[in-house]
Structure formats: structure tokens, C-alpha cells
Amino acid sequence: MPRELTAEQNLTVQGVTIPKLGFGTSALRGDDCAEAVRDALELGYRHIDTAPSYGNEDAVGRGLAASGVARSDVFLTTKLSHDGLDADGVPRQLADSLEHLGTDYVDLLLIHWPHPEVPLAETLDAMKSLCSEGQTRAIGVSNFPSALLAQALELAPILANQVEYHAYLAQPELLALARDHDLALTAYRPLAVSRLLDDEVMRDVAAAHGKTAGQVALRWLLDQPKVAAIPKASSRENRAANLDIFDFDLDDDERARIAELALRHERTIDPSFAPEWD
Known about the structure:
This protein has ten helices and ten strands. By secondary structure, it is an alpha/beta fold. Helix 1 (about 30-45) runs parallel beside helix 2 (about 55-65), helix 1 (about 30-45) packs parallel to helix 9 (about 235-245) and helix 7 (about 200-210) packs across helix 8.
């Protein structure tokens, strides 16, 4: 994959360019994480996602530094933890993240999970201040259902909402808001924690294109307007395979067959503090 991404490989929302395919680092730790990030950037990834709760911001920072890729060429996202969303906690959290990451700014700062006991306006006002100070280039949310996202959009310039999204879990309300408000919907767990790799429909479509089920699952997502995805891959082979999805096209019948899988409505993450989903 070329280091300079093509227009097809990028998503532009609100004038901001985001590489459609990012590298998710959840569950990666220590030297393995640092090497994975370095290798991902060498392969051609230019979008890296992390969070304090992953326990790997130091490692992500080491991987960024070791890659030799200019910081300005990488779209870097981190998040604010659930238990520090008040006006004092927001700047403190980002300061810690920047120190661990070894950078003086991130491209996107997200609220990782909403907190019903902290006013959303308080959190977003603090985030807007960090944006105006240049510590983050943009702000957004994660795990926000449509009603809460609509509220956030009235309070701040939200660039993205990062949610679980894959062929087994439809997100029609969030997709509609993304398109109406020109914001990115970033899909985490885009392979449904590998469940899609054994799906008969995915495998059938994949065989028709000489691809894998995982590649078809990612291509199906990224064909959709305003959608990006951040799969995690522990091996170089899988990281490279995830990138190799821009040389084939799904037809309307294949897209429809895959979309029907959402009838399963399988959510793979639903912690006790999660909001009420759509």
C-alpha cells in the first residue's frame, strides 16, 4: 500500500481528512504494542487509535517514534476515561495522555463512554477549550446512542462518534446523523470479534472476489458514506490483509446479503455503565 493514501482511502468530514482504515490498539500492550504500531505505520496505516483504559499509550508513543513517519502524517485518536469527565478532569486526562504518547497534540479526542452524572455540556466545554489551545485538533464522542449524540451536536462541533458497528449490528440512526451532520462514524470491533470470519455469507462473497471474509467485512463498512473502521490485528499478516481491501468492489446484491446479517443484532460489548442503546 502506498504511503500517500488515495482519495478512496480517505474520509473527509467538516474539511478534516481521516484515513478510512485505522489501526486499533485495544488489548495490545508493552513491546508487542509498540512493534505493532511501528509495523502498521510501515505498512501504510496513517490512523492510530488508543485510549488510557487500554494501558498502552506509552507503547503507542514508542511505536510512533520508532516508525520514522512524521507526526503530522498520522491521524492519532485518544479518549477521555469514564471517571474523569468533569471540568478539572478533562485537561488533566489529556495532559497525561500527551505525555505518555510523546506528542503535544492529538488529532481527535473522544469521550470514551458517556457519564450520566456529569453534565455533557461541562465535559464538552472543557474539550472545546483544549481544542482552542491546540492540544487536540478536533473533538468527538464514543459509544453515544442517537439521542445523546444529537444532544452533543447541539453543544459542540463533534467530528466523530466511535461505536461498535459491523454486519451483525446495524446502526441506522447513527448513520443518518453522521450523514446529516457531516461527521464520521468510526466502527470498532468491525469484525464482531472475529465472528464474521466464519460467517457463511461472508465466506461466499469473499470466495467470489478471491478475498477473505474479514476483508469483505471491512470493505462493506468502508463502502458506506461517512464510515471509518479501526480493526485490531496482532500479526503483520493480518495488518497487511486488512489494508488490502481497496482493489475490489461489492455489487448491490452482495451488499444486500451482508446487510441482512444485521437481523442477528449481536452486540459484543455492553458494560454495566453503557448507555441505553438505540
